Amino acid sequence: MATACRxxxxxxxxxxxxxxxxxxxxxxxxxxxYTPDRIRNFSIIAHIDHxxxxxxxxxxxxxxxxxxxxxxxxxxxxxxxxxxxxxxVKAQSASMFxxxxxxxxxxxxxxxxxxxxxxxxxSRSLAACQGTILLVDAAQGIQAQTVANFYLAFGEGLAVIPxxxxxxxxxxxxxxxxxxxxxxxxxxxxxIVHLSAKTGLGIxxxxxxxxxxxxxxxxxxxxxxxxxxxxxxxxxxxxVVCLMAIKDGAVRRGDRVVSxxxxxxxxxxxxxxxxxxxxPATQLQVGQVGYVVCNxxxxxxxxxxxxxxxxxxxVVPLPGFAPAKSMVFAGVFPLDAGEFDKLNExxxxxxxxxxxxxxxxxxxxxLGQGWRLGFLGxxxxxxxxxxxxxxYDASVLxxxxxxxxxxxxxxxxxxxxxxxxxxxxxxxxxxxxxAVMEPFVLAxxxxxxxxLGAMLELCTMHRGDxxxxxxxxxxxxxxxxxxxxxxxxxxxxxxxxSRSQGFASFDYEDNGYNESDLxxxxxxxxxxxxxxxxxxxxxxxxxxxxxxxxxxLKDVIRRQLFDIIIQTAANxxxxxxxxxxxxxxxxxxxxxxxDISRKMKLxxxxxxxxxxxxxxxxxxxPQEAFLSVMTGSKE
Length: 635
Known about the structure:
single chain, 635 residues, alpha+beta, 8-stranded antiparallel beta sheet, 7-stranded mixed beta sheet, 15 helices, 26% helix, 33% strand, globular
């Protein structure tokens, strides 16, 4: 390894790392001296809980961006939901300055999420980098998202630096983990950096490896300005803030730039770097990654993947990003109808920060006006709901997740079904539909050998088709199976962790559509369908799900002055029934003895009144009932 980096502390940055235009917290810094050959842009990718955020903390400490203290935990995990759950859900960038072999470098780090549901964040971050650190836990070895992230970076043509973290743990097996990396990715084990981000062991080798093994960004300072917009967020004071990777030229405050997506012109109000908070700079130039504030007030104006250039200096647009493909859909409705407009604005601002969410408005007879949102997975959906509640103080009801089905008609046309209300009726299926198809995923499971039988059984139970299973080493197995997406979004992940005692990891990718025997299950209350509780599922699951749903509704629906008949039905056939008995006044209480006909007369009169009431009475499900049915609780 070459000479270790000499890191520039905050105290000496003013004279050594960069020059400041003026003293003070808001002073602009001058980073024009950092040409592309002295810039490195890299990200950290890994499976969840392998220590990405901790490694980022140590790098920020050693370069003087933050002071060394025991309170530095997940500094780049800025969202409340990230700190509560202990996971990264949003990619964050930070610029660092260091010296290596007598030259000063500007190093831009992007910390990425590790869960499969946030893989779109990873792919966007990699577009702004020339290389990446592949971090692997020395105690757990290669896991499912490790494999997925490696091939994501490999497909982008990035330089990959493998590193083993947590080598200080008593359970660490760095030699075994290194052999797994060598076997799975064909990387020489001699090139693997061993470290412990928690204790600081080996941290001094990280940035020298980045500088030596990751290529400098390409581009020319003399070419017309061209930048890739790869992330955005909303600031209540300045509007939309754009995070850009500068591909050519330079941009400074006062320049007029143009969005190639919309053709709109903007005046640049401020440019700067994330250090790790926003720090204004005199100019951003080729190879650098930083933020741009350009008086963009509406969230609808920012499009991730857009190319920006200077006014009157057009350029060839960059490829951008393929739109995220939603794997699950769910309805989102305000608990209070009067909060609709406020929630609409909140969703717009949040989707600016999370562009992988697809948004479509919809109306439900039971729940009123709302939205049908598309997510990359169930954890993504749950995090989005939590961010709405915590960051925007919104009270929402989220319906059960569904997957997008495809209906192939006999006339050659096809239609995607995102909500059960759009699913064709039994008569339409018989007369007009050629095939009903459901989406499949190719799942990758990695687990210890002793759980092989349990994992094969789990996949089979969820209509999975086993493709291959290979041994990564003498004790760990990688299993690939093809299964319906609908099975994955139910309880598959919970059962996976339960059956493997938490040792199994899981990753998936889209694998097309297959014809399937699907039906729409409806919930009827006194013969009237409740659209918000309808679901599309495989015919084999209808009886089990129908009985469970009917029992849950019986527990949460309040008793009325007439019987409430709960039915679940598919294709016109009732599969389960429960009855909520009526509230009944004891009309015979005043009869003390006498002929039985007196009591029967009163009872028959009450019975006729109940019949008339049932004809005009309507059963209204309260929001609490919907919520308890969706979550499976009886509270």
